[in-house]
Amino acid sequence: MSARVVCFGELLLRLSAPGRERLLQSPALEVRIGGAEANVGVSLARFGHRAAMVSTVADNALGEAAAGELRRHGMDTSGVRIAPGRMGLYFLAPGAIHRPAEVLYDRAGSAFALAAAEAYDWPALLDGADWLHLSGITPALGTNTAAAALAAARAARATGARVSFDGNFRPKLWEAWQGDARGILSELMAEADLLFADHRDMGVVLGGDYPQSEPLARVQAGAADAFAAFPRLRWMACTLRSPRNVDHHALSGVLVGRDGGTALAPREEVGPIVDRIGGGDAFAAGVLHGLIHGWQPERTIGFGLAAGCLKHSIPGDFNLATVADVEALVGEGRYDVRR
Amino acid sequence: MSARVVCFGELLLRLSAPGRERLLQSPALEVRIGGAEANVGVSLARFGHRAAMVSTVADNALGEAAAGELRRHGMDTSGVRIAPGRMGLYFLAPGAIHRPAEVLYDRAGSAFALAAAEAYDWPALLDGADWLHLSGITPALGTNTAAAALAAARAARATGARVSFDGNFRPKLWEAWQGDARGILSELMAEADLLFADHRDMGVVLGGDYPQSEPLARVQAGAADAFAAFPRLRWMACTLRSPRNVDHHALSGVLVGRDGGTALAPREEVGPIVDRIGGGDAFAAGVLHGLIHGWQPERTIGFGLAAGCLKHSIPGDFNLATVADVEALVGEGRYDVRR
Amino acid sequence: MSARVVCFGELLLRLSAPGRERLLQSPALEVRIGGAEANVGVSLARFGHRAAMVSTVADNALGEAAAGELRRHGMDTSGVRIAPGRMGLYFLAPGAIHRPAEVLYDRAGSAFALAAAEAYDWPALLDGADWLHLSGITPALGTNTAAAALAAARAARATGARVSFDGNFRPKLWEAWQGDARGILSELMAEADLLFADHRDMGVVLGGDYPQSEPLARVQAGAADAFAAFPRLRWMACTLRSPRNVDHHALSGVLVGRDGGTALAPREEVGPIVDRIGGGDAFAAGVLHGLIHGWQPERTIGFGLAAGCLKHSIPGDFNLATVADVEALVGEGRYDVRR
Amino acid sequence: MSARVVCFGELLLRLSAPGRERLLQSPALEVRIGGAEANVGVSLARFGHRAAMVSTVADNALGEAAAGELRRHGMDTSGVRIAPGRMGLYFLAPGAIHRPAEVLYDRAGSAFALAAAEAYDWPALLDGADWLHLSGITPALGTNTAAAALAAARAARATGARVSFDGNFRPKLWEAWQGDARGILSELMAEADLLFADHRDMGVVLGGDYPQSEPLARVQAGAADAFAAFPRLRWMACTLRSPRNVDHHALSGVLVGRDGGTALAPREEVGPIVDRIGGGDAFAAGVLHGLIHGWQPERTIGFGLAAGCLKHSIPGDFNLATVADVEALVGEGRYDVRR
Amino acid sequence: MSARVVCFGELLLRLSAPGRERLLQSPALEVRIGGAEANVGVSLARFGHRAAMVSTVADNALGEAAAGELRRHGMDTSGVRIAPGRMGLYFLAPGAIHRPAEVLYDRAGSAFALAAAEAYDWPALLDGADWLHLSGITPALGTNTAAAALAAARAARATGARVSFDGNFRPKLWEAWQGDARGILSELMAEADLLFADHRDMGVVLGGDYPQSEPLARVQAGAADAFAAFPRLRWMACTLRSPRNVDHHALSGVLVGRDGGTALAPREEVGPIVDRIGGGDAFAAGVLHGLIHGWQPERTIGFGLAAGCLKHSIPGDFNLATVADVEALVGEGRYDVRR
Amino acid sequence: MSARVVCFGELLLRLSAPGRERLLQSPALEVRIGGAEANVGVSLARFGHRAAMVSTVADNALGEAAAGELRRHGMDTSGVRIAPGRMGLYFLAPGAIHRPAEVLYDRAGSAFALAAAEAYDWPALLDGADWLHLSGITPALGTNTAAAALAAARAARATGARVSFDGNFRPKLWEAWQGDARGILSELMAEADLLFADHRDMGVVLGGDYPQSEPLARVQAGAADAFAAFPRLRWMACTLRSPRNVDHHALSGVLVGRDGGTALAPREEVGPIVDRIGGGDAFAAGVLHGLIHGWQPERTIGFGLAAGCLKHSIPGDFNLATVADVEALVGEGRYDVRR
């Protein structure tokens, strides 16, 4: 069962220090392509879905490389516009042990951020789509992209596509242009069928306070507020992450339904971590895969968590695992060489 | 005390993805030379023995490189034939955390597999040999190599060399030509003085069933069947491996004598693993080293397990550790920098 | 608050095997610059101090690169002499799991070792200095450097600079020229305000015996002997290191004052280790930073241990962490990506 | 003006020695994707055409990577079948000065070679196609692929697509299965509108002899024979290559029309060569581009030669140049940095 | 004889494709530090002068690395300010044979471009300076930097430092903010003692037309106009570059004095070129070195051209050659190994 | 026809800057094994001869790697002693265009230089040898190695092996210990059947003066003096090298017989050069190969020059070409891809 899923967001070049070095400790950078929504799209394409990217890239070799990398991994890039300007970049030093990974964003003024909302013909782009996937990063980039995200969500509603929205709250981006994070995110969440968010996102958007001592209770309280505020919303999902040190995290996953039913995927120990970036996006793609197939919540969140865990073993922003790879992990979890 | 040990088997090129990448995630492959029997031979050469390879390699730069690498590490390659054809290859993605290593064999139709059994002049090749080492991979490659392995084992018996045989059962290889695994392996094991095998191998070859709940008990029951079936057999040895995740295994070792006496090397925690390939071959070389020296079973299996553990810290298929390296580990196990 | 700290010692080139390979397993070496005193100096420069190197390097591209690397990280190299000769080298195979890192020194006959004690104009070099940092490696290199180290320490006393001395006892270096380690180290320690040493160093220098079962008690007993023997001494500090395996150590830190007061920084688990070399030097720089600021012993040793731990996450000999990096670790220790 | 061009042929992995090393001189291989027809297709896609690949790749990570690389550069891979088996490989040592590049083929028994002719649904695959591009390598791989190539050419004729055929005569491949090169190539050339071939190919297929002293005269005589033998044929094109040494060749291009009219692109000096592989395929794509646009022969052959020359400056098998890149070269040929 | 030379301009990170690849053909970038004025400064520092950089870098790891690299090569960076913002970048694909190198600038909105002219305390920064070196790139970046450059030049005049100005006309930068290139460049040239420029620059700034057929005559005519327009000007110098292809250029050098005297350094064949970037800056540093020493024009331009040629053999933007390296080339030009 | 050739000399590690960088421009070194006599030996082993190395290497991983590399390429290393000490090193920056390659020796005090002459059992080592190959570097290292070289030459005479001696005059090495170059080299040359040397060597050893304007005439005059002074000498051979720039040399070869007959291999243009080191040693091995086969002088010198030229295309110190590779070059010299 293959769905058509349209992802809208910025493509970024990740320039990372080799090995566990600090940035420019030696004079080389490894290049990966990423972006929260593209990460979800690539993972869904690898799961066999017809995933399509809608974005704007710079009219140069970097923009071309970014779109090419998505095609390489199976995404449809016919909806990726090419426009004058620069590509958003981020520099990454991956960290180790007690030294956290550091991300240095250099994405201001990108061709994507400057693209007018009208540049996208949503009815055509969403033609035949089953789902539209957005994240809170896109509206945080400025008025253009905020308007475009909202237009996309409303067009999805018009065409009957479901809307998946990943909170991904980034205060620094909003502050840079003094955007009304609360108002805009509320409008977007109001269109969502599926929300990747936890109580902290709900605190930002709805102003709630979550003093519960148990993480799960906080998530459930946040979900209750979300379902109350957003009548269209059907599911809220998130991971619970406990870093033991930079190389080793513990991860579990929660999926809450509108009826309050909560499915929990039990904690996995994840380490030594190869690449932590994109773990949340891989989880989101896994949950979407389960919902597309109409799986039970337990199976859905189990698949989502397994996908999220697997991502930590793969260099780069993309989860390149297939459904078989994820199911092997869910099913048995054998760790010796596969010959 | 240095023995002459002749190893017969295929040399393979391992083409592996860099770091923890998936295959061809980036456009580079690291090349290592390996092969179950060559791995044992190189380790024995590093331990100071006169280890000689008997094999057939392709008459091209790849075959030349394979033989050259054995010489570099001290093996005698005067018994390596050069013949038209291709080299056997395997592609490796090393895996990480929950993602198992994946091996993609591309070895069909190699110069080794096509070499006629008569191509090897066993009396000359085994001249002065103390041991012949074979594995279950060689007969699994087809009628030519099955005949050659059997001829080698029988020639060893004729010259008085002892025979070491590593089960290494690979069902896919046997299925490819519908070879009679059970019959051929039985014939080979019947010639062996030393068998590297566990209850699963015995299940395949002798049809036994091992429902014991304790791994050690299963191994001992398998060994009892082996000693009953193969009157020449004097020792059976194997590792017990418990993968905690892909990067961390626990490993112990067992050596059972014909008299039923069992020496156990207690569990070592092995992680984070650098390279798991060749761990069993390093163990086999360690056990052979102990038997060559006539050590007590406890010392022998301790040395074997230490050798097997050390291999996990060394990139490539070969255990490049020396006797001093292994004994440092057995003796004290200090882990700070050696200056 | 920025101090001027003068470091005197040899600059070395570290040539290390890539990844976790053994030396020359593949035909490449990574080059880093190091040296016990330079490591302390670079770390202090990164902490904002005016750190100056005094040394002698070879008049070739290697010597030039060594001095250039110190400048790159903020040290003043106007006190680095250039003289005919060779650079000291060391080859490093980093080890893994049960396989200890191996260091192969090739430093005999270096331009530094051959430089006459009179080559250094200490009053000028120490002009305005708050601290002089030395280690026990320098006098171990031969009569020239032993005389130079002593001249430096005495000149520091004359100018009013405090003296920091890191024991770093290396028996092999002393044996090579049959130097009087005990006598010379005693003379140097007699000039020190701050000593990085433990009971083992005190055993060497003062002949004491420390049969206490608890490591901390042994350190305290050693410190008591040191304060008794060296009236100028005000602080003694050291780390307590418990390697669990090559990739994972536990580390705590102790600072003992002349009044016997002991500050202990509790044990940190450090692993998987990226680069263990320079951990002690990073600790020393951290302790010096605390003393320069007049911090309480607890804060000082906490900062020192955090600095030492951080070093294990950074490739190369230098701790490139800033004060903010270290304080982030002391303060909270969050391990997720910093965006 | 964009045409739909369907390319049918094998995808190969090229494994090449780094720099100018011999194969396995150091233990690394660089991986590129290639194949005569894919090279033409990628170049046409980069020129803005709708280029589609028809092929069969192995059902493993290598086959996936090969198809992904074509998508990355803009080809449609929906016609690429996935089947059990292995991928064809070739090992390359690039050579230098007086040392010729060496290619070591390891392509026997590939999934492509084993695919039955009936596996391809040509009417569907050629739907809307303006051109079909084939080469003489495909029929040389065995009866399956010979039948498939012929079926493709005849289907093209049925749908009205033009047929482009690149002789690429490889005697070793034909000998391996004693295929009737002359008969099969004749049948294929009889379907071609455009033939990339020179007098040597005509000698093989038609048995002619070309004793003319001038290369151009030989080509023209060969072309005359080709037009006589193959009534459908409209154009024959080839390069004239004079290697001065391995790093420096001179290259010109010839296009002969059925009317005997000959357009010649004058000799270009090409060196120091970065990567010679794919030079002929880049030339073929350039000529096809001119014919698709209905350009005059002089402009067409000029563009073709410029494309062929540019390929020599680009690592890998593919010509990644755009139309603008090629036209910049034809137009003026300035060689300083483009800022 | 060592002069103090202050260089003012932007520091850039160069991110270049490895080998001769196109940008992002493989997922890696090599990082170098550059900038027209910094290139001159590093070369002068390597020649033994006290070269100091005045600039503004971003307050992040990239800015820190840029300043560190200048220190590594001997420049004084105490005049480099650290400010919020981004670093200017440029991406480079080096080209080959007929394929020109391509530079992709991504420098808009850098910390340097945004720094107010008042941020620099010129009297202090120029204290003791013998020369100030500027280029036409700095004023082209916007009003801030145009004002800063002019302030610097006037402050130099006030302190008695000579002014060296490299035209480096970049129309795209001026167009981006519609700056008055002609007016501003005129004002700057009016302050210069030494101008690196040719007739094309003079055409831009003074509006002259240079129809002479001989390059040298055009340069002389341009110089005549320059001396007429700018009474302070004493020397004008430039290279004459004839690219034969991308890997091979011919280069000569011209130095014209106010008296019309012209010194010509005869043409050198330069190829195969390793790195063409920074060739003009290396030439400028060489000419400055000659003028600082008061050499005759012939010796000065000969040294300048040799320095410029040598740069083409060194990877990166900097000419790392020493005076001895340059003089070896001027003197004899032996090309065999120096042992 | 395969000869047994014994080579005596030092094994060195070459540590070279990557690409065309200067030493330590980036923090990596490539490692190659070399040594004038080992280079000849490896080339002869690749030509099919039984080449054996006699040397002393350090008892560490570096010495082991050096010997292993010779075995890898087919040399017998049973005559390589292992002794305490260090390995000789040399650092190489390969140069480009006008920038000469630079070699930085760091070989003083090596295990080889310190080995006593008596350490070698020459009668045993030379058992069955057809040739002994020495060079002028070995006696230049000090009294030990001078005595050892002389002992080897005399033992060869005693056993009937012919002696090949390569002048390789290195004044710096002799000056370091004020060795009597003239006397010692004379003694060695007096034992030689074959001398690789030109008029400059003869000038050093015999004091002659060679004012002839033609290089060939100078060589012939030097040869005449050599044959007069050394009655045992039968052949003298050398290359004539004309560097056009660092990347491009022209090379011819001369072989003079005792009867004055001169065979000349005409000039080859060699460029762009990949690696110039070992070119003379490859030539020497080629000439030895011809003499072993009893070829005519023209064929011998032609083969020698072709071998020398080929070496320039191969990275590292060794000529890895086979006889077929060299003969392909002599025979026809085609430069296109070999498929």
TrEMBL record, chains A, B, C, D, E, F:
The keyword Transferase applies. It comes from Pseudoxanthomonas broegbernensis. Belongs to the carbohydrate kinase PfkB family. It comes from the Bacteria. It holds the Pfam family PfkB. The keyword Protease does not apply. InterPro entries: Carb_kinase_PfkB-like, PfkB_dom, Ribokinase-like. This is 2-keto-3-deoxygluconate kinase. Keywords: Kinase, Transferase. SUPFAM superfamilies: Ribokinase-like. Residues 3-206, 253-311 form the Carbohydrate kinase PfkB domain. GO terms for molecular function: kinase activity.
